[in-house]
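Q: What does the predicted 3D structure of PTS system lactose-specific transporter subunit IIA look like?
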Amino acid sequence: MEKYEQIAFQIISNVGMAKSTFMEAISKSKEGNYTDADNLLKEGNQYLIDGHKVHKDLIQEEAKGESIPMNLLLVHAEDQLMSSEIIKEMAKELIYIHKHYKNN
């Protein structure tokens, strides 16, 4: 497998796990299990950080003058990274709402 395909798959794998974990956190908060929800947010955030590290390394390579070939797989990885960030923020808000308004 080509170097940049492997990098794209590393990003996709990490942020895919992040998104799944954030969605699970929302479900746990909906059930009233806020401790698990908070722990899942932390776990998902670590996956997201791992995806960002791979992404950062790629940006640094380009900054050093290495030509990074853009292809659909890398574009998909970038899209997944950004959507994971959005899902993280939405998960945090939904968990907050469940914690503070569920019993009112």
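A (community wiki): The structure tokens above were generated from the sequence. The helical segments are 3-30, 34-63, 72-101. The mean pLDDT is 95.
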